[in-house]
Amino acid sequence: MSAQRPDPSTEGRRIVICDYNALLLSVTGLLRMSGYCVFQAYDAMAVRELCGQLPDIDLLILNTTGAGVDSATLVRDIREAHPALSVLHIGNWELDGMPEDVPTLSESFTAPQLLTTVAGLLPAREIADAPLR
C-alpha cells in the first residue's frame, strides 16, 4: 500500500514551532505527516533566528512554557518584523497580554482539532501556487 499524498494546499507552508520537547515532537510529526514544512525552535532565541532567516513563515506555534520568555512578549517582538504572521498558542489557559487574534488550543487537543485550527490560521492560497515535490 502506498503512502497517501498530502493535500496540495499544505505543501510549501512554513511553520515554526517553539515548544517544550514532548509536545514539540508530537505536533511537529503530525504537521509534517500532513504535508507541512515545519521548523523546530527550542527557545525564543531560535524563534527569532528562524523568523529572521525565513521571511515567508506562514504560522508560529508556541506553548505557554516552551519559549523561555513570556510568550505574549515573544509574539509582539516577532510581529514587529512580521506584522501579519498568524500565531497559535497551545496551552491549558489563555495568556494575559497575548494579542486578541491569537487563539489558544488546549494541550489535550486531538489530531483533527490541531489540523483544523492550523488550516484556519493559514492565509488563503491557490492550490496551483503550491510547489510540487
Please summarize the sheet with the most strands: 5 strands, parallel
Binned, the helix content reads: 25-40%
CATH topology, anyone?
Answer: Rossmann fold
Strand content: 15-25%
What characteristic shape results from the CA principal axes? globular
CATH superfamily: Response regulator
How far apart are the termini?
Answer: 20 Å
In CATH, the architecture is: 3-Layer(aba) Sandwich
Strands of the widest sheet, in order across it, are 2-1-3-4-5
* Low-pLDDT regions: 1-6
Count of separate DSSP helical elements? 4
Structural class: alpha/beta
Q: How many distinct folded domains?
A: 1
The counted number of beta strands is 5
Could you please describe the fold and organization of this structure?
- With 133 residues, the chain is of the alpha/beta class.
- It has one domain (14-122): Rossmann fold (3-Layer(aba) Sandwich).
- Helices cover 34% and strands 17% of the residues.
- The chain has four helices and five strands; from the N terminus they run βαβαβαββα.
- It has helices spanning 21-33, 44-53, 71-81, 111-121; strands at residues 14-18, 37-41, 59-63, 86-90, 104-105.
- Strands 2-1-3-4-5 form a five-stranded parallel β-sheet, sandwiched between helices.
- The longest helix is centred in the first third of the chain and has 13 residues, at 21-33.
- It is globular, with a radius of gyration of 14 Å.
- Mean pLDDT is 79; it is low at 1-6.
